[in-house]
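Practice problem 4.
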């Protein structure tokens, strides 16, 4: 699927509208792929750069779930304290019970503000 998206991006970059804008294709030259010809039509090369350098566009969350004291799957309690560890709190996207569909920036700012209140007052 990722390869299909890369091939589409390459195709679009060579289209007339993009060419009129001066679009240029940049293909990374990675050490891990140097044994392959750097060519946008070389599927083995494209697969190599995807395997080597691709990163997720998602903002992971839910890996250190916050929940009630009765939720055995929760790592952090509602006061952001790590269960079973004295003096440690967690406040980042990992405490959300599940990842959100949008960008988490504004939500994380609000969560950090609340975390500051918890730390200062409790």
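Answer key:
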């Amino acid at each position: 699927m990722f390869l299909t998206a890369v091939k589409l991006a390459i195709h679009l970059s060579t289209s007339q509208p993009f060419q009129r804008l001066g679009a240029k294709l940049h293909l990374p030259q990675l050490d891990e792929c140097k044994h392959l010809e750097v060519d946008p039509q070389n599927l083995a090369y494209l697969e190599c750069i995807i395997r080597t350098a691709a990163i997720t566009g998602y903002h992971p969350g839910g890996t250190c779930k916050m929940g009630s004291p009765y939720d055995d799957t929760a790592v952090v309690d509602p006061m952001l304290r790590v269960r079973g560890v004295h003096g440690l709190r967690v406040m980042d996207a990992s405490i959300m019970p599940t990842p959100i569909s949008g960008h988490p920036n504004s939500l994380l700012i609000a969560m950090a503000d609340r975390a500051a209140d918890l730390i200062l007052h409790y």
